[in-house]
Amino acid sequence: MGQIVEKVIAPPMPFHVTAFDGSSAGPEDADVHLDITSPDALAYIVTAPGDLGLARAYITGGLQICGEHPGHPIAVFDHLQHLYDQIHRPSATDLVAILRTLKHLRAFRFQPAPQEETLPGWRRAVLEGLSRHSKERDKEVVSRHYDVGNDFYELFLGDSMAYTCAYYPADEGLDNIPGPYGDWNPVNWAKGADANAPLTAAQDNKHRLVFDKLGLRPGERLLDVGCGWGGMVRYAARHGVKALGVTLSREQYEWGTAKIEEEGLQDLAEVRCIDYRDVPETKFDAVSAIGILEHIGVQNYEAYFSFLYGKLRPGGRMLNHCITRPNNVMTKTGQFIDRYIFPDGELTGSGRIITIMQDAGFDVLHEEDLRPNYQRTLHDWCELLAANWDEAVELVGEPTARLFGLYMAGSEWHFEHNRVQLHQVLGVKPDDAGFTGAPTRQWWKP
Fold it and tell me: Which superkingdom does the taxonomy of this entry point to (predicted)?
């Protein structure tokens, strides 16, 4: 097994690899040691080369990352990138020898996918008879990811129970972030359970930013689509705004409703477990959409923004907050994300979002990229998951806990390296004469 690794990866090897057959490859003093513990793990890697096969082996425990906590395996992603860069095609002679060895190790065989994996989108459509982004299929997809258990999510989302990018105050160190932004060191960030306090403050600050950008005032009405556990709804209600949030997740609905009652906000706040397309009310003063567009599908953006445009009064504002690509090409999210995290998910760039918002009638007033904040948010989520690892495994099992650790650490790496971004876009609905009533200068504090 070790000889195979050495034949397909050019030196220097970024890992030290040991295998179930007793072989090894790579420098002993490598920062990360990988252990392939079984033929099953090898079969996953060989039959689904790339991210999907590695994820299957990792989630089932057949691929161990020694020295990395499974709740926050961030360091491995830099090394994986180096690994991909160093893979080369072996000679014909070496290829024959590799194939013989893999056959001997029983790598060429069907290995059932982990139970945490869903079918690819086209097979779901055939077997379930549900078209992509139909109301029924969207509900099933959302339930699969978000109805894992509120107790589990509380372990890493912390007190805020917000599963979207937070907005860290300037004194949290985001004025000096890596690369072109300066000499910043993530070692200074909070670790373990200590991540909860800055995360909670940053999520509250995110809700404050959205509230202020929307220019909401006491007595006005807010529609929050894809409201999650209701954090934005409760923030608005605490500031005198009548807020309605909608989610497709039954567990989010139940948790959010209970929290509204606990805080005594029933007169102003409501969460419904319905599709946003089924909201009957109109003439809202504002719409917030925090982390829902990733689930909509790019081909549905026009209908989505047109529908929400129709929910606003003239002069009403919409704030869309979502993950984007650094370019405006529409891309699906990849096999790992589609099979394990967000089935049917699609991403594109902020330029395309702005164009479609404008085509729907919005006067786009402002947009900004909060990418470093999402990197920090994911770091804090991972640190909390690692700090509460034993309880997480007890609640959902080790494969699911490993899955979330892998997903969030990988996402942290992708935000750090500008593979994905997080954009907020603010639009206003003009009246028939084209007036928006918006001030001529920015009215909110960063």
Answer: Bacteria
Residues 352 and 256 in one domain: yes
Please report, for the domain that includes residue 63, its CATH number.
3.30.1050
Residue-range definition of the domain harbouring residue 46: 2-104
Six-digit token pair at 8?
């397909």
Q: Residue 375 pLDDT > 60, yes or no? A: yes
Query: 149 to each of 28, 110, 155, 161, 261, how far by Cα in Å?
Result: 41, 31, 10, 12, 20
Instruction: Specify whether the CB–CB gap between 27 and 5 falls below 8 A.
Output: no
Residues 6+ away with beta carbon under 8 Å from 39 = 20, 105, 106, 107
Read off the tokens for 294: 């990733």
Q: What is the DSSP string of 166-204?
A: ----GGGTTTS-SGGG----GGGS--GGGGHHHHHHHHH
Question: For residue 383, what is the DSSP state?
Answer: H
Answer yes or no: is 120 within a domain. Answer: no
For the record, the structure tokens of 85 come out as 């860069």
**Within-domain flag for 121:** no
pTM for this prediction = 0.91
Looking at the fold, whether 14 and 73 belong to one and the same domain comes out as: yes
* Short-list 71, 164, 52, CA closest to 408: 71
Number of structural domains, the chain? Answer: 2
Same domain assignment for residues 303 and 196: yes
Residue pLDDT, tens place only, 228-262: 999 999 999 999 999 999 999 999 999 999 999 99
